[in-house]
């Protein structure tokens, strides 16, 4: 399969490296040429000089540039003839109808990926232009399988999905970091703290899945009456931590809707 990728940043490089497979030939381009250097000597990766070269040579063309740069890419594509190729946009907040209008193409697919897919464990949401039929959808979903789970989702749910799934890893990193720094403050070395915190989070998730219990049930199993855990939970409640996190999710959601 001939696959194009316009924009080899965080997501473009994740797509290139995760979908890498000897049966595919990749045609890639990036504005900052230095980011392409490491792919120069790989046989099935062709570095292109123009968006036209990428589009003309690829059946599936991922567009993974920032939302503020996407219009110029679609403008260039709009001047090219559609010949059985499909645009697959990864841009947050950009709807299929808008992409279709700007690129003057019908074969438009929208995905919402995550950097986590680099290890094949992420979830990728997907939505298709109304003219794309079942067999075409099946082939595209199959192409994306190395990314992990591929979830067909109504476009109106993309904004919420983006914040939870695609911004999500950054929120997780922030919360983990808070615990690690809390641990350093009570005398642990950073490496030890990181190891314990990661294992505690991972173990708690596995435990919740296996025991099939509610989150509050886990809180009450751990919190001894008048003990140490409830003291910390009380502090979090007094500081409005849950409200702050809910507000963070909401603000990200509003920002995504503005794009
Ligand atoms: N970073 C993430 O975790 C996620 C990002 N997204 C979306 O994916 C898209 C890409 O995000 P990132 O990879 O984080 O951005 P990035 O800034 O890391 O990568 C974008 C790349 O596109 C290149 N570029 C810009 N204009 C170009 C042009 N005209 N021709 C060729 N290359 C061009 C830039 O040089 C850059 O390397 C965005 O639209 C974003 O909303 C979606 C889900 C998750
Ligand atoms: O922060 C952003 O705008 C992009 C979209 C979702 C994750 N990263």
UniProtKB/TrEMBL annotation:
It is found in: Cytoplasm. It catalyses: L-proline + NADP(+) = (S)-1-pyrroline-5-carboxylate + NADPH + 2 H(+); L-proline + NAD(+) = (S)-1-pyrroline-5-carboxylate + NADH + 2 H(+). Its EC number is 1.5.1.2. It comes from the Bacteria. It holds the Pfam family P5CR_dimer. Pathway: Amino-acid biosynthesis; L-proline biosynthesis; L-proline from L-glutamate 5-semialdehyde: step 1/1. The keyword Plastid does not apply. GO terms for molecular function: pyrroline-5-carboxylate reductase activity. Residues 3-93 form the Pyrroline-5-carboxylate reductase catalytic N-terminal domain. It is an enzyme of class 1 (oxidoreductase). Residues 155-259 form the Pyrroline-5-carboxylate reductase dimerisation domain. Belongs to the pyrroline-5-carboxylate reductase family. PANTHER family: PYRROLINE-5-CARBOXYLATE REDUCTASE (PTHR11645), PYRROLINE-5-CARBOXYLATE REDUCTASE 3 (PTHR11645:SF0). Catalyzes the reduction of 1-pyrroline-5-carboxylate (PCA) to L-proline. This is Pyrroline-5-carboxylate reductase. It comes from Marinitoga aeolica.
């Amino acid at each position: 399969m001939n696959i194009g990728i316009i924009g080899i940043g965080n997501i473009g490089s994740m797509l290139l490296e995760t979908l890498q497979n000897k049966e595919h030939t990749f045609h890639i381009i990036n504005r900052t040429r230095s980011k392409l250097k490491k792919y120069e000597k790989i046989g099935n990766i062709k570095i292109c000089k123009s968006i036209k070269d990428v589009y003309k040579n690829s059946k599936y063309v991922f567009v993974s540039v920032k939302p503020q740069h996407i219009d110029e890419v679609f403008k260039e594509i709009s001047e090219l003839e559609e010949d059985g190729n499909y645009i697959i946009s990864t841009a947050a907040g950009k709807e299929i109808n808008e992409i279709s209008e700007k690129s003057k193409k019908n074969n438009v697919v929208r995905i919402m990926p995550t950097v986590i897919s680099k290890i094949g464990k992420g979830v990728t949401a997907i939505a298709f232009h109304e003219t794309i039929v079942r067999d075409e959808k099946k082939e595209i979903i199959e192409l994306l399988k190395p990314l992990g789970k591929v979830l067909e989702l109504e476009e109106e749910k993309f904004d919420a999905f983006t914040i939870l799934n695609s911004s999500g890893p950054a929120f997780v990193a922030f919360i983990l970091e808070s615990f690690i720094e809390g641990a350093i403050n009570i005398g642990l070395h950073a490496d030890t703290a990181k190891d314990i915190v990661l294992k505690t989070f991972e173990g708690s998730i596995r435990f919740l899945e296996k025991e099939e219990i509610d989150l509050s049930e886990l809180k009450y199993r751990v919190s001894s009456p008048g003990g140490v855990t409830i003291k910390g939970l009380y502090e979090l409640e007094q500081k409005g931590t849950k409200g702050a996190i809910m507000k963070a999710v909401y603000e990200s959601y509003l920002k995504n809707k503005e794009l």
